[in-house]
Amino acid sequence: MTTSTVGPAAASAPAARQASGIRQAWGRLRHQPVTLAAIITVAIIVLIAAFAPLIAPYAPGETDFTAVLAGPSAEHPLGTDDFGHDILSQLIYAARTALVVGVGSVFVAMLIGVPMGLILGYKGGWYDRIGSRVMDIADAMPGIMIGFVVIAILGRGTLILIFAIGLIFSMNFARMVRAITLTERKKLYVESAHVSGLRNRQIVFGQVLPNLVGPLAVQGAVFLGNAIKVEAALSFLGLGLPDDQPSWGGMLRVAAEHQVDHPWMALPPGIAIVVTVLALNLLGDGINDALSGARTTRKQRKKARALAPSLADVEKARQSAEARETATDAAQAATASVIPATASALITTPLHPETVLAVRDMRIVADRPDGEVVPLVTDLSLTVGRGEIMGLLGESGSGKSMLAKSILGLLPAGVRVESGSVELAGEELVGRTERQLRSIRGKKLGVVFQNPQANLSPVHTVGRQLVDPLRVHHGMSKKAARDQAADLLDMVGVKDAANRLDQYPHQFSGGMAQRVAIAIALAGDPDVLILDEATSALDVTTQSQVLDLVLDLRDKLGMAVINITHDLGVAAEACDRVAIMYHGELLEVNDVFSLFHEPHHPYTKALLASHPTADHKVDRLPTIADFVTADGEWIAR
Amino acid sequence: MGKLVLYRLGFAIPQLVVVSVVVFSLTYLVPGSPAAAILGVSATPESIALVEEQLGLNEPVGQRLVEWFGGLLHGDLGTAYRSGLPVTDMLAQRIPATLSMILGGMVVAIVLGVGVGVYTGTRPGTKADRLLTGGTVLGIAIPEFWLGIILTTIFAAQLGWLPIVGWVPFSVDPWGWFVGLILPSLTLGITGGAIIARQTRAAMVRALAAPYTDTLTAAGVPRRKILYSYGVKNAMVPVLASIGVVFAILIGVSFVIEKVFSFPGLGSLMLTSTIGQDFPVVQGVVLFTATLVIAVNLLIDVLYGLINPQARPA
């Protein structure tokens, strides 16, 4: 009866990769102790049911009138019921009933639901409209009610019970299969199969069915548990199996009658149901997790906590870094050269007279599930001056967004700052607690992320999302904050600001939503504004407008801006200085004109060369020979 | 808002009509004839024909369908085969007990589910989260009627704190009504609460991992405010849907646990009518339940529109 969610990975893996996916899933299963325990429990229950006659001390109908309603004894380890049936033997034979009815009804449910879902999902049109109505009607009916009605019409009996319970769950299968078929149908590989002339049926069975295996296994396990619960409930009411057939529900019916005088009788069958259903549900969850590869281990979480640097460590590291910095400054002054000795070191322009943000020797790592520590950003140092727009340029996976997130203290789970320091207007940020970070968030540091719509809460008005930070930072009344919010919106170029405060994010275009996000980031008058790919999702015209806005705001408010981007155009258009990042390292920092006209680092040269411009006619776009693989390896070719 | 209600009614009314047609057609699915089912082994062709005549079962389908809908519009659900009483009266007598129990169960399920879900969803991976989430897994696996037996055994039979037989009409004794509802509501609410808790937890975790949470955090909005005002409101969008599902489940479960608490509700009526193949009563209970579920889903969709601006029709 519970609707369990199905892992997206299982539903989306193309058929060709299914086999290796299942092997991977098995590999993950081994690391899920709860799932292993569930598998073992289910196996034990199946064995007990299969070998009931060998295990049970008495035959199912055997009565012992010398011991009626007796407590536990040597002959009857769990006692007897009102007819002198041995409760232990009843319990063992009832496991058989539960599994037969459960498996049978899941089979019936699949038999009805899977073809129905396939047809609705694949044929669409009228089939789908009518079929979906049928499912809506089933929704209006509590599951057990369907059981009542089937039994009222057809009478009692094992097969009828299996059919009744199967019918209850068939619609869930139909719904799930329909949804998966719909997504699969739309996928490219089904369309390409169409083109190659395969018949519809072949497509459905060849391409869609393999993708159903995972979700069906998950749902099958969960519904088996539910079916056993429903069987017990119907047998408890006396609507299930004939009375001579032992069932956990039937045993509980007897137990309920003797609730006052023999309360212990309710325990064995109840526990049997709970254990069986629990094991099946956990098995379903486990398969789902294994297929989707979700869930971090406890070890990982512990490790992440233990490894986070403390404020004291950071302080020490910063002092030594500062000492070195003065040394390099001196060395630089001495050589009067901007090109350092080693090839990997940075090319630095003179420091801005008034540094507002200084990142020193930053090292950010990710902890992989297998215990390996993957560096994402290595020994990176960077300073940003007051009122300066610093472009942080790099391709995807170069670690630029992780750097930004580490400055904000918003690193995702499993990623941490291993060492280094971030100094913002004289305050250390690394190693701060959530509470300590709050005093700088918004007030000293603002941020705008990439996806304009997702950056705003969809169920709150834009005004509310501006008023909340304003009230936090300026302790304003609601009324004053609202006026201020309208002014902010007006400043970022949203027209009719006062009225638009009451609108929701989905009523804003991408560019406008991003302006709102900028207004939120500016609510606390920050010293530094970080744009984390903030214009990447916008079309070129809108992008340009938002960048102009940022330049304007910088001139007006005087805050520094870190503009993280993978777009050379954005870096060239709206930055004073540009830092080039590659594979977690800072390769080159220079003012925007020098960098684009006289790149020093070979990578920067290659990067600029790969940018198509109207001046050069090329047959083939130049590419950079190294590439970063999905799991973070840096492969050189 | 009126627009949304109208829009949803336009969806619910056809659903209700189709459900009534399906319920009407149930008697045609009986192998042989309902009359034969009523008469049992003693049936002869003559007695079957006589009973069919008396019950109007031999009239043409069209005429019976028109009569069925005509009756429905006047609140007439026909006459019970066994007792000869109007089905509407029989239902009316049972509805207060069933509605009271479901109301109590829903209150427990929502308070427990949303409470536990928000609590665990704001601290995923902690010990408290693992313990409570483990509890919800158990809550879903426990058969409600067994839980009912255990609770009455402990709190009524052994400790004597609460009455074993629960139902007291509200009009007779409001306090007795409340006390009698405690155990049934807990029994009903725990499974539903477990389902809602799992949904709420997942929705909270999703909401707190969303970019807007980062935007607001970075803008300096206190975490407490983000959790309870932004997180919860965003999480309520999927949670509302699960509350609708839980409502339908709770009705079904209440039919089973009525037996444990000796509640004179629709469940015991449905049980005797199912065994006795008293189809007009079965049809009446099914139709009432389906109407109730459809009405509650309508209400939930309207609430959904209130929370989620994107779900409002333009």
Summarize the structure.
The complex is a heterodimer of chains A (637) and B (314). Chain A is built from 24 helices and twelve strands. With 637 residues, chain A is an alpha/beta fold.
How would you characterize this protein structure?
The complex is a heterodimer of chains A (637) and B (314). With 637 residues, chain A is of the alpha/beta class. Chain A has 3 domains: 17-298, MetI-like (MetI-like fold); 351-444 and 527-575, P-loop containing nucleotide triphosphate hydrolases (Rossmann fold, 3-Layer(aba) Sandwich), CATH 3.40.50; 448-525, no CATH class. Helix content of chain A is 54%, strand content 12%. Chain A has 24 helices and 12 strands. Chain A has helices at 8-12, 18-29, 33-50, 52-55, 87-123, 125-139, 143-154, 158-186, 188-195, 200-237, 248-257, 267-292, 298-307, 311-335, 400-408, 434-438, 462-474, 478-491, 497-500, 510-522, 540-557, 568-574, 592-597, 602-609; strands at residues 355-367, 373-385, 389-393, 415-424, 427-428, 445-448, 528-532, 560-565, 577-582, 585-591, 627-628, 634-635. In chain A, strands 6-7-8-3-9-10 form a 6-stranded mixed β-sheet, with helices on both faces. The longest helix of chain A is centred in the middle third of the chain and has 38 residues, at 200-237. Residues 1-17, 295-301, 325-345 and 629-637 of chain A have low confidence and may be disordered. Chain B has 2 domains: 2-73, no CATH class; 95-264, MetI-like fold. Chain B has 12 helices and no strands. The termini of chain B are close together. With 314 residues, chain B is an all-alpha fold. Chain B is globular and about 85 Å long. In chain B, helix 1 (2-25) runs antiparallel to helix 12, helix 8 (174-208) packs across helix 10 (223-261) and helix 10 (223-261) packs antiparallel against helix 12 (279-307). The relative contact order of chain B is 0.15.
The pLDDT mean of chain A sits at 78
Can you tell me the number of structural domains of chain A? 3
Report the radius of gyration of chain A as a whole number of Å: 33 Å
Number of strands of chain A: 12
CATH topology of the largest domain in chain A: MetI-like fold
The helix tally of chain B amounts to 12
> How many individual domains of chain B?
2
* Mean pLDDT over the full residue set of chain B: 87
Largest interface: A-B, 80 and 76 residues
The major pleated sheet of chain A works out as: 6 strands, mixed
Work out the helicity level of chain A: 40-55%
